[in-house]
Structures are given as structure tokens and as C-alpha cells.
Specification:
CATH architecture of the largest domain in chain C: Orthogonal Bundle
Distance between the termini of chain B: 35 Å
Number of strands of chain B: 19
Chains: A alpha+beta (373), B alpha+beta (366), C mainly alpha (555)
Helix content of chain C: over 70%
Number of helices of chain C: 25
Strand content of chain C: under 5%
Oligomer: heterotrimer
Largest interface: A-B, 29 and 29 residues
Structural class of chain C: mainly alpha
CATH topology of the largest domain in chain B: Rossmann fold
Strand content of chain B: 25-35%
CATH superfamily of the largest domain in chain C: MetI-like
Strand order of the largest sheet of chain B: 6-7-8-3-9-10
Mean pLDDT of chain C: 83
Structural class of chain B: alpha+beta
Largest sheet of chain B: 6 strands, mixed
CATH superfamily of the largest domain in chain B: P-loop containing nucleotide triphosphate hydrolases
Number of helices of chain B: 9
């Protein structure tokens, strides 16, 4: 991360327990100004709790939060200069107030409503493309419009930090995609916002963020750009959660500096050695798109045999689940071709393309738990 | 052998037409899916077949017999619900045997049929448990076993998978089809999720605003949609406006609007000067190509790039200002990608439609 | 048996029986409940000359009766108004506490709040009278020889507050809980301090419920008879006036006053349904400094403490004072009840049995005819007709029971349309009939949300599995309804146990427990009254205890 950027939010050693179970363990994080940060992880990873602590809706058991350089631990949510967007159904837009009144609410309750704030509200309406709907009530507006108003309302308080908690929830996939795009372009258009967005939707995280914070079981495992998280995951959890990967167990069969050879079910793969020694147990992750299926074995190298368990067509891509001879199940995604399709229980050959594989040291018995999907 | 025919079915709620003169035929032992956005009428049709809704007009024929006026209990159907509707005050056994006890069957018969049904779905070990102790997939299995117990050959399914975690969905979907086919049932399955429909159905009836737009096999629906809405509903596509310039045998050349680039399309059915909408799916666009007469090649400017992991979405601008989206496998992106690039797509992948009165309406998702 | 039962059910499930059932249910409701209430209008109109004469031109009394009528009305309204306002002031914070906070012992507070609802008003009224109005009560602790307050309007108000308080608190608590907290979170995140959030967001979102609760409390106070009879002194409220005139045989003025009360109640009901849309609250101006100050945690804690104190001192302590009295005066109780020459014990048992049997019968009828009514209101798609039916059901709830009792007395008796001998003369069966009339809405109101909460999908599933309508009810709806019916029965039963006003009007020689409590107080047999009160309080409370268990178990 660019160390010259000014830091807006800093978390130091944040921990929180729920009864005896640890929700967050020693979280430290720096979020620079003007960045779009996604906190992403599976259910129960602690991401929502973290967001609520930043918002001030919950207190950490230990640790400090700084926003804009000031210590915020004992500051009430309404005084932190944050705007929050709530779950998508209503965006918590006050149903008994018009759009205009919703927008100007923050100013009113802080006692700073004035002619100027009225002008700002009008401008905000124009920016949100809702100028002709100022007098309408939330219940007559579409999801997208409500999202805009909710964002506008948060921004009217002068907040430079916006927190989003799974804002797109359980919407229809396509509608969600559109709303997501609108959100991103609005944030871009405004140019001065810092956004922290919690989600468990990987595509969403990859699509909208400048940086992703990968959080599992209350710990931050990795922080990086979407490319870094996807292409260079630092752990099996991050790798399995953010991509559709197959995990193979193998061992280092030989070292020929600067390379190492891995024995994977009888296939030998060559990688750049990273401090491995001969005999080390490893786990190799291969993406579903880095495998292909064909009928017959055509080579002795990099090919495995198995049979088709089931398959699924999704928008031109076929996802095959293949059961190997050793009973492992792997997933292969490849483009649908009407001339080449495989039926259930059909014996097939799988070709590995080892260019993009990622190798991890074998974690021992906890391998199962680490594979998130 | 249930063969269902729906004739001119109509139903309105006030001014809203839930069903608008719907005609549909479901063949014996067929697995038909009713697919569409919310409010399209698919659930209304299913409930009308079940007898839970009364249509304003039209008929429903079951093996030639008109059942339109019969109450649900007199129609020979089995039904499975989105929220399972497993009776909370009865255990699994009592739930599954419910339809048999209603019919007054003997204890011996009840046991035989119910045990078989429970074995089929794999819920036999849980026979004494109550619904509050069961997981969502298990509850749905109870619902299925109970529907099977009715002995009916027609199975109606109302979004049976939407309450299940996506983890379970694919496997359950698979099992469901196997069960239905194994028992030789006719199934009518309502869903809004195209992934489910595409993989479980023999045929799909795509609906919108109370009408059936197209009935076809999944592959036909995907690769030969008969409307822009269908195309947009089932895939992420680009829509380009153009005018037919030249016609040849089995091919035509279309000039995109604003005197834009020329695109060759695989049909000769449109007259010259006809205004069209061309569609090309974003994952059918390629950044590399081998020159051939089967592809279209265009220049495009990359405006934006969205990394989505295994795939990357590119926002492109064509010479005439038209916007397009291309979905490329990240590993297939050429090493040195410039700002202006050449894209290609197969001629056979392009579909064409008459330019509609209201393109926005066609592209809407409801 | 199985197959035969199924065959019968199939036969009963056809459309004809469905229509017949619906018609009978509605018909019963209209005949037994609505018509008698409306009959009072026709009664007054047809006898207008006599009534007019008695009210304004009586040879001996002049227009005294008219004057008495107006006074009674005025008093009732005055008292009801003041009581309602006090209720809102002390009830709203309590409702807020119950709705928003979690704390140890919350369950007990909840039950305590229900106490006045469960117990016959006469018994409770007696306890309160002991507490405030005699030297056996709080003034005794200070060594005074007489009660702190004497009988009259102030006592009446104290008594009415106790009875109306649970209505307001329950109502407001539900309403507050229905306001989604996310709105409050959003308001806070936008910078609004606690008080402002309440005034600008929570308040407007619950204003309908607030007005509804206030109207209910108002009508409850208007109609209160049992406890009022013990403490009124010479301040006669409307219900008391009706009872008095009835006992004197002055049916004309009684009818007229009843009619006015019925009219007022109907108007209030209409108001309830209409006004809620219009009333706005001042949400646009914000007084930032003041509201911030008001939102300080210290103020909140003080407020909570005060509310708790008020609750205990005004509601709880007086209500349970009889127990203290019995404890300290057990010998007096013993001698009055068990040794007295007039055999009070036997009297007590007779009335107790009468009360129980009347309550039992009324409840049974209400269950049998309330369930179909609840199902009609929730499930039938009749549009406007349903809304009308829904409003009609509430009528007996808002009409002062004495007025209601009088209407029933007139309709079924010698002055009614059934000929010179009438169908029912004052006595046991008329009491049962009257109790059915005002217990019915309770039953239906309890059943409606329960029927609503039964997902119609279950019944649909049962039908697709081959069950005809009747079988669906027996095997699917009823199991899901059982708990609710039991809860409704307990509520109805206790309501009937406690009824005084209407009972006084229609009773012949049969006396129920509340009646003898009132009688014995008038005869200054305080100890005996205390005895009867305590027994009935314990009995009612045990019932309510079971009610709580049942409803909590089903959640």
C-alpha cells in the first residue's frame, strides 16, 4: 500500500469477545483517505462486528480506534463524522418524511439547518438525479433510488467516511449488479469519500474495492488489492474463499535450484522454489479454470483420470464436478461447447495447467477446516 | 399419465393482469420449469393448477378432464412449497403419512408407501423427529416424501430451492431431478433463478407480465431466444443498434448506428434498411483471434476494467461511441494490452431482433 | 371410526355448509350482540314522551333527573379525561422501558402490570379503598385515625388509574416494539440525541398506537363500575347512575343515559379509526440544546427510578393491600365470615359457584362462535365488508358495561320486542347472555392475531394432500390454534369473573362475587369483603399465571 497516503481510519489491537467466544482477535488496520475498502469474509468471521465498532454502535473489549487522527473509543456514533448505510430493504429511510426531509434531517437535528444547508440539499438532489422527486416518500421509490437517497442523507452530514454493511443483501443477482455499479460510480463521482464496505460476496468485493481486508474467524489474514488477494493469496483460507480452487496434497520430490519439483498423484509439477526442502508436504491450489476436461488421455504428463459426478450450465460456462480415483472431488469450469459434453458417470481425463498454481505448506490436520468452500 | 393442458387462462387482481390468456401444454413425464422475474405470473399458474387460486377465465385439463372447478383436495396432485410447510406439530412420520391417513388407507398400506417415500429421499433415519430439529434441506426432503406419499403422478414445486443455502442447492437440484425421473412423475417447477431452471428442466416456459414468452429446451432458450427480454434475462449481453446494409445467402451485413462499424450476422431474414438490435454475450467476445470468415473483428477503446478474479470485465467503446462489455478469462488477457485494441466474436454467436418500440422496457428485468 | 369421520367431514366440507356456517356465525353475532345495543335507540325514541316527561317535567322532581344525568355524564368525562392524561404521562416511559431494555426481573414486572387486568375490579377496588381510604391502609402507618383520602372524585381517579394503566402500557409497548430500531439507529448516526430521536422518529411512527391506547383507556374509565361503586361516595358517575335508576325502576332516564353513552362510545370508535391519519406531531423544529440536555443518561435514570416508584406506590401496593389487611385483621375476618349469623360463608360459596359457572358458560359459547368469526375476518376475502365487521366487533369493548347491560336487559325483557313477558327476565340466564355479549370481542380479538399468524400455506398444503375443508380444520388449523384458544379462554373467563356493571343491571336473585363484595362494603362488613376479594384475586392470578406459561411456551 502506498505509504504516503494520509490515513483516515486506524485500528490498533482491537479485540472483542461474545461471552467466551472470541469475535475479533487483535485487529490492526490502516485505511487511507479516499479509498474503497472491502472487509470480506465468510459468515461469522467478525466483519459486521468490526464495522459496528468503527461506527461506534459497539465497544471493543480492547484496542483503540482513531478517525482522522483522533481517538474515538468513547465518542458516540453521531459524533464520529460517519455516514452509515443500512440493510437494503428500506435503507432506514424515515417512512414518514419526504425525500427532502430525509436528506436534511441530519442538519436539522444537529441544529445547523440554514439557508445554506437547504441549498446543499437541493444540490444533492440534483446530484442524485432526484430533483423532481423531492416531495415523494420512500415507499414509492425503487431500490436504486432509495440507495441514492440513503447515501445522500449520510453525505449531507458532511461525513467523509461511509460505512456499508452488506448493503445489497439478498437481491436478485442482476438487480444487485446494477445497484453495485451505481454505488461505485456515485462514489467515484464525488471523489472525496472513504468507504468501508462489508460483504461476503466475493465478486462484489473484487469489483468495487481498492483494497480488500480478508477476515476469517476474527483475524485479518491478508490485506491487498483485488489482484493481490486473488492471484497471491497468502493462506489456504484466503485462496479457497476468494476463488474456485481445487486443493491437491503432494510432496516435494526434488530440488533443482531455483526450481522445486512436486509430486502430485504421480504427476510432477515444477515451480519456483520458495524455501522448500525435499520431502516437505505441500498443498497445491489449482483454479477451476486452469483445468480442462477431455475424453481420452492424450499424454502422460499433467493428466488425471476420473468420472463425472454432476455438471451445471451457467451462462455459457459448464461447471463439472469430477470424482478422481482417490475419491477427491474437483471442480472444472470450462466454456460450453455443444459438440463436447460429458454425461454423468462418464469417464474423463483432466488436464492440469500448472502455470498459475499456488503452493502452500501442508497445515497438517487442519486442512479440512481451512478450505472454506 | 398426467398430461396438463391450460387454455386461455386469465386472472387479474384489480387492474394488474397476473395471467393474460395463457396457453400451455405439459407432457406426460416431462419436467417443466416456469421461469421469470417476480410478478410474471408463474406462481399464479402453479397455484391455479393446484386449485389454490381460481382463474377468472380459462380451463385446466388434467388428462383430458376439466378440473378447473374442482377444489384442491379433489385434484390428484402432490405439491412442495418454498417454505416447506411441514406441519410443525407432527413429527416426520406423521407428516409423511398424513395424505395416506386422510384417504383412510390401511395401516399396512400406509407403512409400505411412507417408508418407501422416506427411503427414496433419505429421511428415514429422522423418522421420529419434529420439524424444529431439522435443517432446511431435511425439511424439504420431508415435504417431498409427503408429496410422494400422495401417490400422485403430478408434482408441483413452488420455488423449492430458494430457501436453501447455495451450498446445498446444486446437489439438491441434482437429486430432485433424479428422484422425479426415477418415479416417472410429471413435474411443474416454478423458479426465478435461471441457473436452476437451465439445469433441471426438460423444457422451460419463460414468462413475463402474465404471458409466456417462449417455451423451449434450456439450450434452445439460451442460444435461440425469441426476444430481447429473454436474452437479457438469461445472460449478460451487449445490445447494439444497427441497420441492414447488405444481404447475401444466409448472411447479412449490418452497419451499427452513427455510421459505425459493420457486423456480419448469420441470417438473411431481414430486409435491407431494417432497423435491428444485435446481441452478443459479453463472454463470447475475445481479445485474440485467428483471421477467418467466421468472425467479426472490431476496433475498440478500453474505458474501464473490473477484475473479478477468474474473469475480468472490460468496458469498451466502439468507434461510433457504442458501449460494450467483454468478459475475458483473466489468464487469457494478452500480456501487453493497449488502450485501443481489437476484439472479435463469432458470427454464429450474434442474434438479431427487430428494433422494439421501447428498448428500455425490453431490457428491464421485471 | 377413522373412515366414518373422514366421510362425514368430506360431506360437511361442501360449499353449502360453508355458507351456512358463515351466515350462522355472523347472524349470531348480529342478533346477540349488535341488535340489543342498537335497540336502546329505538326504545328511547318510541318512549320519548315518557322519558321527556320524567327528565324535564316531572311533577315532583322537575328537571332534577336531567340535571343528574348531565352531572353524571360530566363527571364521567372529566374523570376519564384526567385519568387518561395521567396514564399517558406515567405509562409511556414504562412502556419504553419494557420495550427497549432488558433487565433481570423483567418478566415479573410484566406480570405485575397485568395484575389489574386479571382481577375483578370490585376486588381490586376494595383493596385500593382499604389502602387510601381507611385507617387500615397507608394512613395507619402514620398513626392516623381515618383514611388519607375520603370517598369521592379523587379516590375514583386513583382507582381508575390503576385499571387503565395496564391498557396504556401494554398497548404502547406493542406499538413501540413495532417501530423498527434501525430507524432509530439511522437517526442517531445522523446526529440526533436520544430525546430528539424519540420526538422526531419513534413518536410519529407510533402515534396511531398512542391515540388508540389513549382512547381505550378513556373508554375503560368511562365504563368502570365495580370498583367505582365502592369508592364513589356521593359522586355518581354515569354507570353508577344507570345502576341506581335501574334499581329504582326509572327505566326511562336509565335508557336515555345508556343511549348517550352508547353514542359517545360509537363516536369514539369512529374517531379512533379515522383520526389517526390526520394528527401530526411537531417534528420539524428541533430544539437542539434542550433536547441534548434531556438526553443525558442521568436524566434517563432518574426518570426510570421515578416511574418505578410511581408504579409501586399507585398501582401495586394499593392493589395488594387486602393481603396485608387480612394478615393484620385475621380475627375480624374469621368472625365475620365463619361465625356470623347471616351465614356469609354460604353466601360466598353460592356466588363463587355462580361466578364460575356463568364465566364457564359464557367462555364456552364465545369459543364455539368466536373461532369461526376470527377465521372469517382473517381469511375471507370480502374487502369492505370485513372492515365493517371488524369495527362492529369492537363495539361492546368500548361501551360502558352498565349501559350495555341495560340495553340487553331492555331488549330481552318485558320492555323489548318479544312481547309483554319478554324472553329472558333478570336472573342467571340473562347474566350469562350479557357476559357473552362483552366477552365475545375479547375472544375474537385474541384469536384474530393467532389465526393471522397461522401461515395459510399449511392449510393449502393440507388441501393439496387431499384433506377436505373440515378435515383441514381438525388436523391442521386446530392444532395450531389450540394454544391461542386456551389463552383467549382464560382472558374471557377472568373478564367474566370480574364483570360488575352489567351484572348489577340484569341480575335477579343470583349474585356473583363482585356483587357481594360491593354489597358487603356497603354494609360495612369490610373483613368479609376482604376475604372474598382475596380469594378471587388469588384465583384470577393463578389463571393468569397459567395463561403466561401457555403463551410463553408457544413462542
Amino acid at each position: 500500500m502506498d505509504s504516503n497516503k494520509k490515513i483516515l481510519v486506524e485500528l490498533r489491537n482491537i479485540s472483542k469477545k461474545f461471552e467466551t467466544a472470541p469475535l475479533l482477535q487483535n485487529i490492526s488496520l490502516e485505511i487511507p483517505h479516499n479509498s474503497y475498502f472491502c472487509i470480506c469474509g465468510p459468515t461469522g468471521s467478525g466483519k459486521s462486528t468490526l464495522l459496528r465498532i468503527i461506527a461506534g454502535l459497539e465497544k471493543p473489549d480492547q484496542g483503540e480506534i482513531y478517525i482522522g487522527g483522533k481517538l474515538m473509543n468513547n465518542i458516540l456514533p453521531e459524533d464520529r463524522g460517519i455516514g452509515m448505510l443500512f440493510e437494503h430493504m428500506t435503507y432506514a429511510l424515515f417512512p414518514h418524511l419526504s425525500i427532502y426531509e430525509n436528506l436534511i434531517y441530519g442538519q436539522r437535528v444537529r441544529g445547523v439547518a440554514s439557508e445554506e444547508s437547504e441549498k446543499t440539499a437541493d444540490e444533492m438532489l440534483r446530484l442524485l438525479m432526484l430533483a423532481d422527486r423531492a416531495k415523494d416518500f420512500p415507499r414509492v421509490m425503487s431500490g436504486g433510488m432509495k440507495q441514492r437517497v440513503a447515501l445522500g442523507r449520510a453525505l449531507m452530514t458532511g461525513a467523509e467516511l461511509i460505512l456499508l454493511d452488506e448493503p445489497l443483501g439478498a437481491l436478485d443477482a442482476k438487480i444487485r449488479l446494477n445497484l453495485r455499479k451505481e454505488l461505485v460510480s456515485m462514489v467515484k463521482a464525488l471523489g472525496y469519500l472513504t468507504v468501508i464496505h462489508v460483504t461476503q460476496d466475493i465478486e462484489e468485493a473484487l469489483m468495487v474495492s481498492d483494497y480488500i481486508v480478508a477476515i476469517f474467524s476474527g483475524k485479518i489474514l491478508q490485506i491487498g488489492t483485488p489482484e493481490e488477494i486473488y492471484n497471491h493469496p497468502n493462506s489456504i483460507e484466503v485462496c479457497s474463499f476468494f476463488s474456485t480452487s481445487n486443493f491437491f496434497e503432494g510432496s516435494i520430490s526434488g530440488i533443482e535450484e531455483p526450481n522445486a519439483l512436486i509430486d502430485l498423484h504421480g504427476i510432477t509439477i515444477q515451480i519456483k522454489n520458495r524455501a522448500f526442502s525435499k520431502g516437505d508436504q505441500v498443498v497445491v491450489a489449482i483454479r477451476a479454470t486452469d483445468l480442462s476436461i477431455q475424453k481420452e488421455k492424450t499424454s502422460d504428463l499433467n493428466q488425471l483420470q476420473g468420472k463425472v459426478l454432476r455438471y451445471q450450465f451457467n451462462q455459457g460456462v459448464m461447471r463439472y464436478e469430477i470424482e478422481l480415483e482417490n475419491k477427491n472431488v474437483i471442480v472444472v469450469n470450462q466454456r460450453y461447447d455443444e459438440n463436447i459434453s460429458f454425461k454423468e458417470n462418464e469417464k474423463v481425463t483432466i488436464t492440469l495447467y500448472p502455470t498459475n498454481i499456488i503452493v502452500f505448506p501442508h497445515p497438517g490436520e487442519s486442512l479440512e477446516e481451512k478450505i472454506i468452500k | 399419465m398426467p398430461h396438463i393442458v391450460i387454455k386461455d387462462l386469465s386472472k387479474a387482481y384489480g387492474k394488474v393482469k397476473a395471467l393474460d390468456n395463457v396457453n400451455l401444454e405439459v407432457f406426460d413425464k416431462e419436467y417443466l420449469t416456469l421461469l421469470g422475474p417476480s410478478g410474471c405470473g408463474k406462481t399464479t399458474i402453479l397455484r391455479s393448477i393446484a386449485g389454490l387460486e381460481q382463474p377468472d377465465r380459462g380451463e385446466i385439463l388434467f388428462d383430458g378432464k376439466n378440473i378447473t372447478d374442482l377444489p384442491p383436495e379433489e385434484r390428484d396432485i402432490g405439491m412442495v412449497f418454498q417454505h416447506f410447510m411441514v406441519f410443525p406439530f407432527l413429527n416426520v412420520w406423521d407428516n409423511v403419512t398424513y395424505p395416506l391417513r386422510i384417504k383412510g388407507k390401511s395401516e399396512v398400506e400406509i407403512e409400505e408407501i411412507a417408508v418407501k417415500a422416506m427411503e427414496l429421499v433419505g429421511i428415514l433415519p429422522r423418522i421420529n423427529e419434529f420439524p424444529e430439529d431439522l435443517s432446511a434441506p431435511e425439511l424439504q426432503k420431508v415435504g417431498l416424501a409427503r408429496a410422494f406419499s400422495t401417490g400422485s403422478k403430478l408434482l408441483l414445486l413452488d420455488e423449492p430451492l430458494s430457501t436453501l443455502d447455495s451450498k446445498f442447492r446444486m446437489e439438491f437440484q441434482h437429486e430432485l431431478r433424479k428422484l422425479v425421473k426415477g418415479l416417472g412423475l410429471t413435474a411443474i417447477h416454478v423458479t426465478h433463478d435461471q441457473r436452476v431452471a437451465m439445469n433441471i428442466a426438460d423444457r422451460i416456459a419463460l414468462m413475463r407480465k402474465g404471458r409466456i414468452l417462449q417455451i423451449a429446451t434450456p439450450m434452445q432458450l439460451y442460444y435461440a431466444p425469441n426476444s430481447i427480454f429473454t436474452c437479457n434475462f438469461l445472460s449478460n449481453s451487449n445490445f447494439l443498434e444497427g441497420i441492414v446494409e447488405k444481404k447475401e445467402e444466409k448472411r447479412s451485413t449490418v452497419r451499427l448506428r452513427g455510421f459505425g462499424p459493420k457486423i456480419v450476422i448469420p441470417t438473411d431474414k431481414w430486409e435491407r434498411r431494417k432497423r435491428l438490435v444485435l446481441t452478443i454475450r459479453r463472454n463470447e467476445i475475445s481479445f485474440s483471434y485467428a483471421k477467418s470468415s467466421e468472425i467479426n473483428i472490431l476496433n475498440a477503446e478500453i474505458i474501464d476494467e473490473h477484475f473479478l478474479g477468474a474473469r475480468t470485465i472490460f468496458q469498451l467503446r466502439l468507434e461510433n461511441g457504442d458501449r460494450m462489455e467483454a468478459e475475458i478469462l483473466t489468464k487469457d488477457i494478452p500480456m501487453h494490452l493497449g488502450h485501443v485494441i481489437t476484439i472479435s466474436f463469432n458470427i454464429k454467436d450474434i442474434m438479431s431482433f427487430e428494433y422494439p418500440e421501447d428498448l428500455d422496457y425490453e431490457l428491464a428485468l421485471e | 371410526m377413522g373412515r366414518l369421520l373422514l366421510k362425514i367431514e368430506k360431506g360437511l366440507s361442501n360449499r353449502f355448509f360453508g355458507i351456512f356456517g358463515d351466515s350462522f356465525t355472523i347472524g349470531f353475532f348480529i342478533l346477540i350482540i349488535i341488535v340489543p345495543i342498537l335497540y336502546i335507540f329505538s326504545f328511547v325514541i318510541t318512549r320519548w314522551d315518557t322519558i321527556y316527561f320524567n327528565l324535564f317535567n316531572h311533577p315532583i322532581l322537575g328537571d332534577k333527573q336531567w340535571f343528574d344525568l348531565l352531572t353524571a355524564l360530566g363527571r364521567s368525562f372529566e374523570i376519564a379525561g384526567i385519568v387518561t392524561i395521567i396514564d399517558v404521562i406515567i405509562g409511556l416511559p414504562m412502556a419504553l422501558i419494557l420495550a427497549r431494555y432488558q433487565f433481570r426481573g423483567k418478566k415479573y414486572i410484566d406480570s405485575l402490570i397485568d395484575l389489574p387486568l386479571a382481577v375483578p375490579t370490585a376486588a381490586l377496588g376494595f383493596s385500593i379503598y382499604l389502602f387510601w381510604g381507611t385507617h387500615y391502609g397507608i394512613s395507619g402507618l402514620f398513626g392516623l385515625q381515618t383514611g388519607l383520602f375520603s370517598e369521592g372524585p379523587l379516590m375514583i381517579m386513583l382507582v381508575h388509574i390503576v385499571f387503565t394503566y395496564p391498557y396504556i402500557v401494554r398497548n404502547l409497548k406493542e406499538v413501540i416494539m413495532r417501530v423498527d430500531r434501525t430507524y432509530e439507529h439511522a437517526a442517531r448516526s445522523l446526529g440526533a440525541p436520544g430525546f430528539t430521536v424519540f420526538r422526531t422518529i419513534t413518536g410519529p411512527l407510533m402515534k396511531e398506537g398512542l391515540i388508540a391506547g389513549a382512547i381505550l383507556a378513556f373508554t375503560r374509565s368511562l365504563g368502570e363500575t365495580g370498583a367505582t361503586m365502592i369508592v364513589f361516595g356521593v359522586t355518581e358517575t354515569s354507570p353508577i347512575q344507570i345502576v341506581a335508576w335501574r334499581q329504582l325502576g326509572l327505566f326511562g332516564p336509565a335508557a336515555f343515559l345508556s343511549m348517550i353513552l352508547v353514542l359517545v362510545a360509537l363516536l369514539l370508535l369512529l374517531l379512533l379509526k379515522l383520526i389517526t391519519r390526520r394528527v401530526g406531531l411537531p417534528i420539524h423544529r428541533v430544539f437542539v440544546r434542550t433536547e441534548r440536555a434531556l438526553s443525558q443518561p442521568i436524566l434517563r435514570k432518574t426518570r426510570n427510578g421515578l416511574i418505578a416508584l410511581v408504579f409501586i406506590l399507585i398501582v401495586i401496593l394499593p392493589s395488594l393491600w387486602t393481603f396485608v389487611y387480612i394478615g393484620t385483621n385475621s380475627s375480624a375476618v374469621y368472625s365475620q365470615v365463619f361465625l356470623g349469623a347471616d351465614n356469609k360463608l354460604a353466601e360466598f360459596w353460592l356466588s363463587f359457584l355462580a361466578s364460575l359457572s356463568i364465566a364457564g358458560l359464557a367462555t364456552l359459547v364465545c369459543v364455539i362462535l368466536g373461532i369461526p368469526m376470527a377465521i372469517i375476518i382473517v381469511r375471507r376475502k370480502w374487502g369492505k365488508l370485513k372492515a365493517i365487521l371488524d369495527t362492529l366487533i369492537d363495539i361492546p369493548l368500548v361501551i360502558p358495561s352498565a349501559a350495555l347491560g341495560f340495553s340487553v336487559f331492555v331488549f330481552w325483557g318485558t320492555l323489548g320486542p318479544f312481547g309483554p313477558n319478554g324472553l329472558f327476565s333478570p336472573g342467571y340466564w340473562l347474566i350469562v347472555l350479557v357476559h357473552i355479549v362483552f366477552c365475545y370481542p375479547y375472544m375474537v380479538r385474541v384469536l384474530i392475531p393467532i389465526v393471522s399468524s397461522i401461515d395459510p400455506g399449511y392449510e393449502e398444503a393440507a388441501r393439496t394432500l387431499g384433506a377436505p375443508a373440515f378435515t383441514v380444520f381438525r388436523t391442521c388449523t386446530w392444532p395450531l390454534l389450540k394454544r391461542g384458544v386456551l389463552a383467549g379462554s382464560i382472558i374471557t373467563f377472568t373478564r367474566s369473573l370480574g364483570e360488575t356493571g352489567a351484572t348489577l343491571v340484569v341480575m335477579g336473585l343470583t349474585r356473583t362475587i363482585p356483587v357481594i363484595i360491593v354489597d358487603w362494603v356497603e354494609a360495612q362488613s369490610l373483613a368479609a369483603s376482604a376475604f372474598a376479594s382475596v380469594i378471587i384475586i388469588i384465583f384470577s392470578y393463578v389463571l393468569i399465571f397459567f395463561l403466561r406459561k401457555i403463551t410463553l411456551a408457544s413462542e
